[in-house]
Structures are given as C-alpha cells and as structure tokens.
Amino acid sequence: MKNNYLISKNLEEAKEQIEEILSHLASNPEYSEQEFRVCLEHAYHHLNFAWNIRNVDESRVEACSENDFKEWSKYPKSEIFEYE
Questions:
Q1: What is the mean pLDDT for each group of 10 consecutive residues in the chain (84 residues)?
Q2: pLDDT confidence of residue 56
Q3: Any alpha helices (H) in the chain, and if so which ranges?
Q4: CA–CA separation, 10 vs 4, rounded Å?
Q5: How far is CA 74 from CA 2, 10, 32, 35, 84, in A?
Q6: Contact at 8 Å (CB) between 73 and 18?
Q7: What is the rounded CA–CA span in Å between residue 64 and residue 57?
Q8: How many CB atoms lie within 10 A of CB 34?
C-alpha cells in the first residue's frame, strides 16, 4: 500500500465528520435529513478516497485531476462487496 499519510488524513476527516453527525444527533432535535445526507456523503467521500488512493503514486494523488477526484470519490463496488 502507498500513501499511508494521505490515507490516514482521509480517515481522520471521515472520523471527524461522523463525530460531527453524532454530536448533531445528540444535541439538535431539528437536525434535518438533508443536513444528515450532506454530512454522511462527506464522510463516505473520505472513506472511498482513502481506499481508492491506496496504490496510486503520491505525486498523482497530490496533482489530483478533476477526473481523479471523481473516480477516487466513488464507492469501490468491484473491490468491496456489499452486505446481502
């Protein structure tokens, strides 16, 4: 695996986002489904990104084209199986 530092950074971002969601759920009865969706999508992005960059050269990750960003943000369907 390459990019342990960048993987760690993305996992930390996902963790922080999940902690924020938990805080809102515990303290804000008006927390909306739309807010939850946006926050959860942000967490998913970082989890997906961490997985998808694991074997990409660091220089390419740092350069990160718009196409790379879109591809690396996607759920890796062919690599991680969904629960049935």
A1: 93 98 97 97 96 93 94 85 62
A2: 95
A3: 4-27, 33-52, 58-63, 66-73
A4: 10
A5: 19, 14, 24, 20, 20
A6: no
A7: 11
A8: 8
CB 48 within 8 A of CB 76: yes
- Please calculate the CA angle 12-73-26 and round it to the nearest 5 degrees: 45
Q: How far is CA 18 from CA 8, 14, 28, in A?
A: 15, 6, 15
Neighbour tally for 3: CB within 10 Å: 19
Question: How many whole angstroms separate alpha carbon 8 and alpha carbon 6?
Answer: 5
Give the burial string for 48-68 (b: 16+ CB within 10 Å, else e): bbbbbbbeeeeeebeeeeeeb
Tokens of 83: 């629960």
Token couple for 71? 């591809």
Using alpha carbons only, give the angle 49, 38, 48 rounded to the nearest 5 degrees.
Answer: 15
